[in-house]
Specification:
The chain is mainly alpha-helical. The protein has helices at 2-7, 20-29, 47-55, 65-77, 85-95, 98-116, 134-151; strands at 13-17, 34-39. Strand 1 (13-17), helix 2 and strand 2 form a beta-alpha-beta unit.
Length: 152
Amino acid sequence: MERLRSQLKVDKWFVAGGSWSATIAYAETHPSNLKGLLLNSIFLARQRDVEWAFTKNDAIERIFPDLWEKRLGFLKKYDVTPSNAAEVLLEKIKSGTSNTVKEIVAGVNNWEVQKRLSNVRTVILPTSNHKFTAEGEIAKRFIFNSFLNKQQ
C-alpha cells in the first residue's frame, strides 16, 4: 500500500480495509501518511461473537433468515451442523477430493461474502461448475489456516 501511495504522489490518505490486521498494521507502520481509517466487517471473534455468527439458534438468522437457510442447506449436504461445521469441514478440506474442497471453500466464502453484501443476492464463487478463482484460493488458505490455528 505504501508503494502505491508513494507512486501516486499522495501525501496523506484515508485507508479502508476489511482486514483489521492488515489495515491496522499499515496504520502503525505509517501513521504520518494517514488521514484516517475506515474499518469494515468488524468482528471481535470472542466466543460469544463466534457463536452468534456461526452456531447459535435465534441469532444471526434473525437478521439474514434467507442466507441462514442457504447456509443450513449447504451444511446439510456435508452432514454438518452449525456447531460442528468448523471441525468437520476442515477435515473434509484436508482429505476431500479437489471438487469437494472447491465446493466447501466456495460455500463458506459465499456465506461470508453474502452477509457483507446482504442486499445483493448473488453467489460469488459458483458451487455448481466449480470455477475456482484466485479469490477462492485465498479463501481456502484463510479457512484452512484459521481452523488449524484454532486446533493447535
